[in-house]
Amino acid sequence: xxxxxxxxxxxxxxxxxxxxxxxxxxxxxxxxxxxxxxxxxxxxxxxxxxxxxxxxxxxxxxxxxxxxxxxxxxxxxxxxxxxxxxxxxxxxxxxxxxxxxxxxxxxxxxxxxxxxxxxxxxxxxxxxxxxxxxxxxxxxxxxxxxxxxxxxxxxxxxxxxxxxxxxxxxxxxxxxxxxxxxxxxxxxxxxxxxxxxxxxxxxxxx
Amino acid sequence: xxxxxxxxxxxxxxxxxxxxxxxxxxxxxxxxxxxxxxxxxxxxxxxxxxxxxxxxxxxxxxxxxxxxxxxxxxxxxxxxxxxxxxxxxxxxxxxxxxxxxxxxxxxxxxxxxxxxxxxxxxxxxxxxxxxxxxxxxxxxxxxxxxxxxxxxxxxxxxxxxxxxxxxxxxxxxxxxxxxxxxxxxxxxxxxxxxxxxxxxxxxxxxxxxxxxxxxxxxxxxxxxxxxxx
Lengths: 206, 229
Description:
The complex is a heterodimer of chains A (206) and B (229).
Chain A: H1 2-18, E1 31-33, E2 37-41, E3 49-53, E4 61-62, E5 65-69, E6 77-84, E7 89-96, E8 98-100, E9 102-110, E10 117-122, E11 125-129, E12 142-145, E13 158-166, E14 170-179, E15 188-191, E16 197-204
Parallel strand pairs in A: 1-8
Antiparallel strand pairs in A: 2-5, 3-4, 3-6, 6-7, 9-12, 9-16, 10-11, 10-13, 13-14, 15-16
Chain B: H1 2-19, E1 22-30, E2 37-40, E3 43-46, E4 50-54, E5 56-63, E6 70-76, E7 81-87, H2 92-148, H3 154-187, H4 189-194, E8 200-203, E9 210-215, E10 221-226
Parallel strand pairs in B: 1-7
Antiparallel strand pairs in B: 1-4, 2-3, 2-5, 5-6, 8-9, 9-10
Helix pairs in contact in B: 2-3
């Protein structure tokens, strides 16, 4: 009888040790752009399935690769739970992220100028600055700040950026389409006429 | 003429006297379908049911395996055929053997066969029930997750929870049954080992041969002959 109990105990121990222990893992960026569709992938291990709670009161997701689009600015805490052994074993990990739209932060203009006015066109918006004078080098560029006084959202599509210099005449210094859906560089650097360079900086709100 | 009539009458009387000297005896043995042994006046007549016996009283003995020896007399009258009904009574020892055999079979059933069968069925079904339970729990957790976000209704989750509870009951019942059956099987193992199958031996009073009755491995009583010289 004692032998039987001993063998049963060993068998139970072996069975328990065979059970999977899931390890939840989440590696996220600090910021995620509102309106952009992301595919989240987990670095979890030893699991059967994963649940994703995006922390923004939207629908959850079950699966390895979770598609999600944040719909408003905020600081959601994303929770990932990895389950194994019929969901009797689980491990979860939480991580706070920042979801925000992209806003125009500033533009930095470099280039010799005899213009006293810049007219900057971004999509359907036009901004005029008449405090322009002198030459602007890469070390001391002309800085035109927008954020936070002016909060212009950068749409996730192709936008035409145009800079026009004015004194007595008008000259289009930069006129270029930027695809903000694919271009996530910051700043976005645009080469214009006569050595003009625009560095377009954007920022997240949070 | 007188002589002729006298001769005829003498013949008729003689014939009539000769006809009543012996009689056909029909023996009916009640309650026995297989072999039986008959001894008439000490002479063995195996499995015979019709005899020609002279008029008078005769000793008759009938025996069949598993039955008591019948001892009686038969009287053949003036009729051509005499019928004798013999009813054999089952041997008391054999009845005791039957009772012991039933008790033995019952003990085997309760202490070995039933625990073994129930335990085996439970143990075999355990992996299936375990997997079914795991799958349903997984489904329940996912269902609860979706309900939390309003992606499915609470009713769906309640339904899944009820199914999960049923599978839990099935699984734990199987676990308990397997444990109990195995425990009983092991606990009774020595007792079953010490159980002796009952046997019954009976001697043919005429041939002195022995009939042995025991339990075959299939627990069917079998008869065997042992000749003694």
